[in-house]
Specification:
This protein has a single domain (about 20-145), classed as Roll (Pnp Oxidase, Chain A), CATH 2.30.110.10. The chain contains three helices and twelve strands, in the order αβββββαβαββββββ. The protein has helices at about 5-10, 60-65, 80-85; strands at about 15-20, 20-25, 30-35, 40-45, 45-55, 70-75, 100, 105-110, 115-125, 130-140, 145-150, 150-155. β7 and β8 (about 105-110) form a beta hairpin.
Length: about 160
């Protein structure tokens, strides 16, 4: 039985998620980033996380070929950052404060937390690729996270981080 894509998206949208910007640096030294809510922890020993990206994304080759990525977990004050990295803008980093992490991968300022990873595997996932990363460094700011469900941003102000 075929499932209608809009219905499937609507059902997936009932799952409240955090909002991340995944960043990397390509083999030519150019930085890339994209908004993703397809992020999840996998294992504590060894420390592993995953995220997935559409194969049609403009930055796909950078993530598929690059050896590292960072998961920037956005704070609730970063809706504009989420929107910028979800867009087709040519220079997504323009006006966004960041500093280089391991291997030069961008770490965004003002985030709730960030996770620096060494990519250990790519797995096919339909029209997406699943990237598995081993966690090498973490940071938590204590700022409340930006959350998303049903196609809109929500506030998680009742969380005590």
């Amino acid at each position: 039985m075929a499932i209608e894509k809009r219905s499937l998206r609507d059902v997936f949208g009932t799952f409240v998620t955090g909002v991340t910007v995944i960043t990397t640096i390509d083999l030519n030294g150019k930085i890339h980033g994209c908004t993703a809510n397809s992020f999840s922890s996998v294992s504590l020993e060894p420390p592993l996380v995953l995220w997935s990206q559409a194969k049609a994304a403009r930055s796909y080759d950078a993530f598929a070929d690059g050896p590292r990525f960072a998961v920037n977990i956005l704070s609730e004050a970063q809706r504009e950052v989420s929107d910028r990295f979800a867009s087709d803008a040519n220079d997504k980093f323009s006006g966004v404060e960041w500093s280089p992490g391991a291997g030069g991968v961008p770490i965004l300022k003002g985030v709730c937390a960030h996770i620096e990873c060494r990519k250990v595997a790519n797995y096919p996932g339909g029209d997406h690729t699943i990237f598995l990363g081993e966690v090498e460094a973490v940071f938590k700011s204590g700022l409340p996270p930006l959350v998303f469900a049903a196609g809109r941003y929500l506030m998680a102000t009742t969380l005590s981080l």
